[in-house]
Write a structure and sequence with these properties.
Blueprint lengths: L8 H9 L3 H23 L2 H18 L9 H20 L23 H7 L3 H9 L3 H12 L4 H8 L3 H21 L5
Helix pairs in contact: 1-2, 2-3, 2-4, 3-4, 4-8, 6-9, 7-9, 8-9
Length: 190
Amino acid sequence: MRDFSNSSDEDLVALFKNGDEQAFDELYIRYSSRLVKVIYYYVGDVDSAEDVLHEAFMRVIRHLDTYKSDRAFSSWIFQIAINCSKNHIKKSKRKDELFERITFNLPEGGGEAHSPEEDLIGSIEVEAFNRAVEKLKPKFREVMLLRAGESMKYSDIAAVLGCSERTAKWRMKKATELVIQDLKEEKLIQ
């Protein structure tokens, strides 16, 4: 396989559109593990997450001609994965809890700067945090998942969710406030 390490996602898309299947393989390698993690948070089990991941990549292939290179490919593919996840939930009528088995890979306190979200998550039990997040409305849960779980920038979150960056920031602020309020009510934080 050729070395695509210096190729942007957009370059790989252009190569694939011109018939280079290895370019698509590289996109799959770059995104499959991140996407399956996000999908898993929605659907709640490994087998379904793998199925939805496959469906998401099939949609990417089928609709690649609709991708516009002025938009980040990462935002476009995450949006497809989230939409496939939502469709899967609707079809199967499953309402598994979104963050039941979440594990955040946060850095250990080695003097690095942490975001308020990371400090919040690091200061409480993950299970308690998960229960609080489960109570959030979907628009707040989604932002929390993408920001805290995937460490996405607000501009990318806005692109994935189809809202303004300002709205994404407001939703994250509101989600954090609601989670803190819930944890205070459970006397897990002060």
